[in-house]
Design goal:
alpha/beta; 2 domains; 6-stranded mixed β-sheet
Length: 209
């Protein structure tokens, strides 16, 4: 939340623009209704975990990222029936044992069937513009060696151009959004069909296992 208590749907510098301020207000209306709290209560309610753990003065994005990947892991375990491996070293993956140079040392989540890993999930709470290239390079790296591998990006990004750039990349099978309908409501149009809602993720993953 910023000093006016608007939700951070985008970087702070962009929140100063009229368009994203208006979109943040739409987001605020939505979560206020869904959570059943008055708008003035939201900054304290949605931040209660960080405050309760005494982490408000630290790099909260680190804790948010860790919490996000753990949440996705639990969702897959509960609704797909497989428990993903978390933070797996690349050289421990079948087909990558001899690799010594890679875009990123560890994969966020790896999903195996009885014989091999079939699905890789990259969890990004937001798709920062300065890290998009790294994400796309990572997907290309895995697909080049294992073309049959399913690569999913799970995110809560709200900028449609960033979502589109990832969805349009041929090395990424689907972009899974925490709330696709809310994205469409905020930007005022439908998004790419490769962008799926989080509720659709279990069936997508099951088909590949």
């Amino acid at each position: 939340m910023d000093r006016e208590t608007l939700p951070h749907t985008i970087e702070i510098n962009m929140m100063r623009r009229g368009l994203w301020r208006d979109r943040a207000k739409l987001f605020e209306d939505h979560i206020s209704k869904e959570l059943g709290y008055a708008k003035r209560q939201l900054p304290y309610r949605v931040d209660s975990l960080i405050r309760g753990l005494g982490l408000q003065d630290r790099q909260r994005q680190n804790y948010l990222g860790i919490g996000f990947v753990c949440t996705v892991k639990e969702l897959v375990k509960r609704f797909v029936g497989y428990d993903p491996l978390m933070e797996v070293d690349v050289e421990d993956l079948k087909g990558f044992e001899d690799v010594r140079r890679y875009p990123r040392r560890r994969a966020d989540l790896v999903l195996l069937n009885e014989r091999d890993f079939r699905v890789l999930l990259s969890t990004k709470w937001s798709l920062r513009h300065d890290r998009l290239k790294d994400l796309l390079n990572e997907a290309e790296f895995y697909k080049r060696r294992r073309p049959e591998l399913m690569v999913l990006v799970v995110t809560n990004e709200f900028m449609s151009s960033r979502l589109a750039r990832v969805a349009e990349n041929g090395n990424i099978d689907y972009v899974i959004h925490v709330n696709r309908k809310l994205v469409e409501k905020i930007i005022g149009r439908t998004v790419d069909e490769k962008i799926k809602d989080l509720s659709e993720m279990p069936e997508i993953v099951k088909k590949r296992l």
